[in-house]
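haha ok so turns out i had the wrong file open the whole time. this is the CORRECT one, sorry everyone. sequence first:
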Amino acid sequence: MSSLGFFGLGNWLTILPVILFVACFYFTLTFFEHLRKGDDRLAKQSKLTATICLALALLIPALYSLYISVQMMK
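then structure:
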């Protein structure tokens, strides 16, 4: 893979967690809205989606950093 490919991938892996953090914040707000309205099914779905977005936003950069570290050690 060329260095331009790694640079492009690095940029996307910087932007993607930001998008996922925004989505996490959005679904957290909708969770509170559905909780206030008493809609348990939608509150549960919003909570699960917010949790998944947060987990991905934190794991993607960590796994990419681990991958780069392993590649540098070769």
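The chain has a mean pLDDT of 89.
again sry for the mixup
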